Amino acid sequence: MDRTVLLIEDEPNIIEAIGFILSRDGWRVATHSNGVDAVGAIETRKPDLVILDVMLPGRSGFDILRDLRAGAGTADLPVLMLTARGQAQDREMAAALGASRFMAKPFSNAEVLEAANALVRP
Amino acid sequence: MPGSGLIGSRIRERRTMVAMRQADLARKVGISASYLNLIEHNRRRIGGKLLLDIAAVLGVEPVHLSEGAEAALVATLREASAAQPTAGAEVETADEFAGRFPGWARLVADQNARIGRLEQAVEALTDRLAHDPHLAASLHEVLSTVTAIHSSASILVETREIEPEWRDRFHRNIHEDSARLAEGAQRLVDELDAGQRREVTLNSPQDEVDAFLDAAGHSFPALEAGGRPEEVLAEVDFGTTAARALARDRVGRIATDAARLPLERLAEALDALPEDAAGREGPDPTVLAEHLGVSPGLVMRRLVALPDDLQDRLLPAAPGLVIADASGTLLYRREAAGFSLPRYGAACPLWPLFAAFTRPMFPIRQRLRLAGRSEGTFLTHAVAEPDQALRADADPGLRAHMLIWPADHDEEEPPRVGVTCRICPRETCASRREPSIMARGA
């Protein structure tokens, strides 16, 4: 069984690069690039892992995470948060809302792979 | 350690340094020259008021005379060592160090003071990063682009046997992103350069007063209880008299509003709203105003003055409020979550706040979407009302109010407005007055 990941991010070139390295690593990758209906996309696709950018068009990643943690089916879903503002307050906010892991841009491909594989074991 | 017996020597040393004659100093503090002479030769004890007087005439701190500059230096050395315990400075030998190497000791003390000042400056700059939306937007852009380039470049280097189509695609992405990065980096440099000039506005009286109001949550229990503005301002330390005068005006207005519409009456009116009106959307200030027999502007100003507990109980969310005068200058600002207000420069001309000026006293209710990364939806109520009593041939001092409620996303697409042109991503906007620093919207 392939592990599935849903990458929710709005920078097309980041989507392409992260999507590429994850699929080379054996993940099945789906992408989504706006915040408004991200929760719906997660509920429909039921991925093993969600990689979620904080700054999304339409809706903040924090709001999406809050909904996920409140939802019955997604309360324990591994969520890796990405942000381009490595500020302590973003990190605290992510932790308080129940993010499984937090990563500040710029990150390396190896870090993303390591985090993804640590959150969902092959 | 210099003992108290050497006070006289220090007085003499200091007096010689400022080139004052013994007789002159003696006369100024009301003692005889011969008595001062005895003191200076440590043959008479001195303390109390006489010491304070002599210190004042010589222009030094009394402690400088009673304990010596060395004591102050030793204290600073101890402070420096406490600030950096890992260095392992031998605290117990601080006075020996200051005594044997006074020059080096002063260097350490001065550097300690300098580090303190630099740390404060860094803190102010960090604060700027958190509160300057222009700088934050530029930085975000640069970091995202760097991430994309970094990731694509690593793939090209690290992936063995990459298909030519993929290789070409990543090459193209890097090329595009590097152009974006060059542009973004230039904007960031411009922003940082502009920071120098902006220091002035950062500390402007308006900023200082805004910070004061934000810290108080725009709510002053003393004023609600009928207290005078002076009571609220007595304990506050403003940097400039202009800021104090401005704060006096703002707080005075809050006090007047509080007297005209006490919080209990507003709370009753909110409680009395029909279920659907008080539901998930923020209440309509014109409905409340009619019910209370006051102007909608007053209701808006009072809604943002509700203390947290009442806000939590009676309102669906904390509202934002901006008030502008006829020049478009924002006089009062309170942010609603997700609707940031421009800190520098003017706001977006598409705000209903400004439309309100075209028909004074005509309330506007408009739902809108805020262009930007979060694209939040908001319900706004705007109205322009006279600030002055109406008199023939006198300017009524119109002030436009715009109350901002965070709202749910709607099926219909509400008009999209920005915060301010510089950070607005709207690509085609007939009202744009300056280019955006957002790379893709530029």
From TrEMBL, chain B:
Residue span, HTH cro/C1-type domain: 11-65
Keyword Signal: no
GO cellular component: a single term: cytosol
GO molecular function, one term: DNA binding
Pfam families: HTH_3, ScfRs
Keywords: DNA-binding, Transcription, Transcription regulation
Xref: SMART domains: HTH_XRE (SM00530)
Domain of life: Bacteria
Family annotation (PROSITE patterns): HTH_CROC1 (PS50943)
Presence of the UniProt keyword Transcription in the record: yes
PANTHER family on file: HTH-TYPE TRANSCRIPTIONAL REGULATOR (PTHR46797), HTH-TYPE TRANSCRIPTIONAL REGULATOR SUTR (PTHR46797:SF23)
Protein name (record): Transcriptional regulator, putative
Organism per entry: Pseudooceanicola batsensis (strain ATCC BAA-863 / DSM 15984 / KCTC 12145 / HTCC2597) (Oceanicola batsensis)
